[in-house]
Amino acid sequence: MLTKRIIPCLDIKDGRTVKGTNFVNLRDAGDPVELGAIYAQQGADELVFLDITATVDERKTLIELVRKVAHAVNIPFTVGGGISSIADVSALLNAGADKVSINSSAVRNPALIDQLALEFGSQCVVVAIDTRFVNAAHIVHTHGGRKPTHLRTLEWAKEVENRGAGEILLTSMDTDGTKAGFALDLTAAVSGAANIPVIASGGAGTMDHFVDVFTTGKADAGLAASIFHFKEIDIPNLKQYLSQQGISMRLTS
């Protein structure tokens, strides 16, 4: 069995880590450099850094902050927000990112996925899919969840894989920040439709929610924010618990 991954997420606004519910009502969650270092030390498998207003503000990701976080962690580090070109990705990788996450730019220009995969390798390209259930269908949203598109989530997941994405970061906007559990049916459907790893995001509130998303949801990784930022769940304890439930985990001594 492949080892499942636990991934804390740093949502960044104005240089600070923030967290909201259903993509709104943001509150401060601390310094991203400090948090990143703590999570790496605690045994997180990877770290995701999302500059959540870069696209809306029409600016680039905060390169200097990325450099500081990369310096503080020794685990794979994915960066997203405002990325729209090969030059953007090159700058982030040079600043210490291992992978990049694209969403709005991939929807606007799907060929960007092909270009980045060709230039940097699929292992470097994560396509984030923010999705909400609208009129009896799961619809892809862009611009930090503000803009609905015409794209159906499952079809888009298959397309991004075909274009060379190495992973999908799937966020259910309906469950995001609710702590009521991941969107299991949606996650299982995307995991079944795509042959690349799916990182499930949105709704983690208990350790059993991670058990559910790895079993019922068939996710390869579970991503969460507030439960880690506000010390509601401890990463070493979570991984120990998941291991006890028969889920393959990388455990640190």
Structure, described:
The chain has helices at 32-42, 63-72, 86-94, 104-108, 111-120, 153-162, 184-193, 207-215, 226-229, 235-244; strands spanning 5-13, 16-21, 24-30, 47-51, 77-80, 99-102, 125-134, 137-142, 147-152, 167-172, 198-201, 221-224. It is an alpha/beta fold. The chain has a single domain (5-244), classed as TIM Barrel (Alpha-Beta Barrel), CATH 3.20.20. The chain has an eight-stranded parallel barrel, surrounded by six helices. The longest helix has 11 residues, at 32-42. It starts with a strand and ends in a 9-residue tail after the last helix. The model has no long low-confidence stretch (mean pLDDT 91).
Question: How would you briefly describe this protein structure?
Answer:
This protein has 253 residues and is α/β, with parallel strands linked by helices.
Please report which band the strand proportion falls in: under 5%, 5-15%, 15-25%, 25-35%, 35-45% or over 45%: 25-35%
Low-confidence stretches: none
Number of strands: 12
Counted by DSSP, the helix tally is: 10
- Structure classification: alpha/beta
CATH class: Alpha Beta
Strand order of the largest sheet: 1-4-5-6-7-10-11-12
Number of domains: 1
